Amino acid sequence: MDDVALSQPVTVLKGVGSKVAERLQKLGITEIQDLLFHLPLRYQDRTRLLPLGSLRLQQECLVEGTVRLSQIKFGRRRSLLCHIEDGTGSLVLRFFHFSKVQQQHLAQGARVRCFGEVRNGPSSLEMVHPEYQIIAADTVIAVDAELTPIYPVTEGLHQLSFRKLMQQALACLDSQTMPELLSDSVRIHPVANYSLTEALRYVHRPPPDVDVQQLLDRKHPTQRRLAYEELLAQQISMRRVRANTQKHAAPILNGDKKHRQALLAHLPFPLTSAQHRVVDEILTDIGQSVPMQRLVQGDVGSGKTVVAAIAVVEAVAAGYQAVMMAPTELLAEQHLQTFKIWLEPLGIKVGWCAGKQTAAQRRQVLTELNAGDIQVAVGTHALFQDEVVFNNLGLVVIDEQHRFGVHQRLALRDKGRQVNSFPHQLVMTATPIPRTLAMTAYADLNVSVIDELPPGRSPVTTVVVPDSRRSEIVQRVHAACVDKRQVYWVCTLIEESEHLQCQAAEDAATELQQALPDLKIALVHGRMKAADKESTMQAFKSGEIDLLIATTVIEVGVDVPNASLMVIENAERLGLAQLHQLRGRVGRGSVQSHCVLMYHPPLSEHGQSRLSCLRDTNDGFVIAQRDLELRGPGELLGTRQTGLPAFRVANLLEDQDLLSVMSGAADRFLQTTPENTDALINRWFGHKIDFGHV
Ligand code: ADP
Ligand code: MG
Question: Least buried of 380, 402, 566, 693, by fewest C-beta within 10 Å?
């Protein structure tokens, strides 16, 4: 086995027939070396027996004890409870499924060794369905010498058989080395001490003297060595996307300044200096003959829409079409209204393209887009569809980009593809992503930041209250409306079920209308017809409605300056970034605004700290950093949606120090060993990233 080349297909391994090969393929494993890059998710520590008196919650551990009492309990669920003790403490083993034989084995007096996770039971610590083994009297059974790696596997491929395959692959690695793709100048501190081969051997088969906790915490230098290479591979793949785009031409959008000046002259406000700066950056980009790829980050309410509108006007002035895409129909409609107000006086025709429109309307807009009669299209992801063909698309704007992925971003760009030419691309987000993370997630984009709110905004005051004080809050809503202010009441549910959300909103609307008969109350949710949603929003905007009950459909972008109170029900169910977005719907005018985060007790410690973070700050960057710490980057960025690959070893939170040196490392890599680029990307993301092609 040890003379088998690492590039051989896995089928040369024992135990890999066509079925197993197929399952391995699902994990992206076709060659032996792919197997070696399939890294353990975590480890189980069966190298030591822990005294029962020392157990901590959620700990996964190996314990041993004597059964003191074994009984079947008939409660809501029949279960077998085995109380074991070892002189230092005791533990309950709980089984919901058990046979007669098992019950006999686990009888009083038996000595049992088990492995499982420690949980809180009704009266004491428990393990539910631990792996266990009965130990005959007077025998000594050794503990494992090494940590047990746990691999991510797929259906039909068991952990144990996977480990057997890995043993064979590791045997190959005993006599060979994995090609090193990082030259010395790239392998700078803190990862210089290990070669790739050493690191791989170590993480798959940690030696008995390993610092166990360090490995479990993913902080071991060998893991960091691998994380470094993985992050570098990611950075380089994103740069390749970028470089590939830069190879193409783009239309030079440098139109008659007249239009832009007219738009600025008609705006009811002057731009902030941050908006001016970002506009300049964009205008410089789109005046070049390579496609702009720019991300505009700006906290909720910082005024991104007008920045986009200026870019759009510039494209049209240069004789091209532009498209503005938003993640929800509600937000897209609002952009449509705004753009109509701003652009139509300049003689620009704005069209609408969304899922819920009649076939006739759709045909009409498609024809006009294709003929170039409509210069600006506003819509939702319906704009992706094949039947949408532009006449000469010069600029793509994607709003609230965190809701879309890299792939969608690229798909929309391809829409405007002419022979060897791409439209410019502007993406906007209010999700303030910590800088190091942004560099990773958006390594293919230039970033502009609108770091200033328009003048005259007073910060939103936030309070956190239990829902037992609901009636008090309802009175507060009433008082605000009597005071000619408008109010949002947001219903949330943890289930990703739109249906249930809508139901909850409908129930709340009924209840609040009963409680507050003198108020004009309306409801918006995702299941309403587009036209109904639109007219409700219009009515709210124009002040005909006092209280708007909504689901999280209003999360992004909705802009009604007179709304100064927002109540969010079950706030504990939402992420911080999402709550911050929602709260951004108020505080848009000059009056003092309030946000009530209502939670359903009991609130966990974690939940408490989350909600108080929101109460204590209005700064989106602080909140994002906190969200990152509390929930991890996947949640914050929506890993799937950003197109960020799931990492095998790297952890975007804990490896922030690595992220911050990544840009320099990528420069050195590309300078010294550009020929290794394909091999590096392939090794880590080969099967996952297909956006490197263009
Ligand atoms: P976001 O960045 O959250 O998308 P919007 O573009 O919706 O923010 O702008 C929020 C509100 O601020 C809108 O009512 C918009 O008209 C207004 N606004 C934008 N820029 C300015 C400015 N420079 N001065 C005053 N108000 C502004
Ligand atoms: Mg917006």
Answer: 693
